[in-house]
# Entry
Amino acid sequence: MTQWLTSLTTDTPQEGFELAITLARKGVGYTQTSAEVREKLRPDYAENADSLTLASQVIAIHFQTVAAANNYWK
Amino acid sequence: MTQWLTSLTTDTPQEGFELAITLARKGVGYTQTSAEVREKLRPDYAENADSLTLASQVIAIHFQTVAAANNYWK
Amino acid sequence: MTQWLTSLTTDTPQEGFELAITLARKGVGYTQTSAEVREKLRPDYAENADSLTLASQVIAIHFQTVAAANNYWK
Amino acid sequence: MTQWLTSLTTDTPQEGFELAITLARKGVGYTQTSAEVREKLRPDYAENADSLTLASQVIAIHFQTVAAANNYWK
Amino acid sequence: MTQWLTSLTTDTPQEGFELAITLARKGVGYTQTSAEVREKLRPDYAENADSLTLASQVIAIHFQTVAAANNYWK
Amino acid sequence: MTQWLTSLTTDTPQEGFELAITLARKGVGYTQTSAEVREKLRPDYAENADSLTLASQVIAIHFQTVAAANNYWK
# Structure
C-alpha cells in the first residue's frame, strides 16, 4: 500500500480543507477500490444536489479533525 | 488555485456563521467544479425541505469548527 | 445584513437550546432566502416524521456548540 | 414557555442518556408544536427501521453533550 | 426502569466499542419499546446495506463518547 | 469473542485511517453477523455513489476518535 498520509499538519487552513477532501475521497477509495467503477459513479453524485451536500458533509467532518490537529492554525 | 481561506478567525459569531456557510459551499464546489451545473441544481435543494435541512446540517458541523477556532468568541 | 448573532452565551441551558434552534433555522434561511418559499415548504417537513428527526439532529449539533461555549452552564 | 431544561447535570450516565432522549424529542417538539400531529406521525417512525436508527443518532449526538457536561461521570 | 448504564468506563477499547453498540440499541429501544416490533423490523435493516451503514454511524458517534470517557484507553 | 481491538494507538495517521475503516466495518459486522449476507450486500453499496459517501462518513467519524487518541500524531 502506498503511503498517502504521513501527517495532518498543513501550512494553511486552505491546505487543511484540501486534505479533508482527500480524506473524504480515500474513505470512498478504500471501500470501492476500482477507479473505473468510481469514475462511472461520478455523474450520479456530481449532478445531484443532495449527493453533493452529503459529500460536503464528509469533508466538514474531516475538516474538524484536521483543524484540531493544526490547533486551528492559530 | 485562488486563496480563499487564510484564517478561521472572525470578529463576531455571525461572521463565523457566515464563514461556516462558505466552507459548506466550498465542499460542494470542489466536488462539482462547474458553476453552471451547480446553478442548475439550485432549485433541487433550495425548494426541498429535507435538502435545506441537510444543507443546514453541514453548516452546523463547520460552525462547530469555526466556533472552536475562535474560542467561542468569549 | 441585520445583526442576529452577537454572542453564544446564554443564561440557561434552555435558552441555549433555543439559540441552537435559531442557528439551525438560519442555516436554512441563508440557503433559501425567500421567506415565502420556506413557508410553503413547512408542511413538507413539519408533517413528516423523518424530516422532523433530521431537523432535531441539526439542533443537536448546534446545541453541542452552544453548550461548549457556555462551559455546559456549570 | 415552560421551564424544562435547567441543568445538564445528572446523577448517573443512565439519567444522562434519558436527558439526551428528552433533548432529541424537544428538538422535534419545537419544530412541530402540535402534539396531535406528532402523535399521528408516531407509527411512521416507530415502525420503520431506518427512522428508528435516525432517532437513535440524534440521541447519540445529545448524549455526547450531556456526557461532556458531566465530565463523563468520572 | 432497570439500571442498565452505571458507568462509561470499560477495561478495553473493544469493551468500549461493545458499550457503544449497547447505547445505539438503547436509543432505538427507548423509541420503540416493543421488543416484538423491533424483532419484526430486524430484516429491514440487517439485510439492507445503507441501513447497516447508518447503524454503524450511530455506533461511531457513541464510540466517540465512550472513548473520551476512557481517555482513549491510554 | 475474538480480541480485535486492543488499542487506538497507531504509528502513523495512515494506519489510524485504516483503523477507522476497521471500526466502521465492525459496526456493520456486529449488526449483521453473517459474513455471507454482508458479502451479498456488497454490490448494493460499493456500486452506489451515495452509499459510498455514507460509508466514507462513518470512517470520518471514527477517524476523529482515532486521531484524538493519537494526539493527532503530533
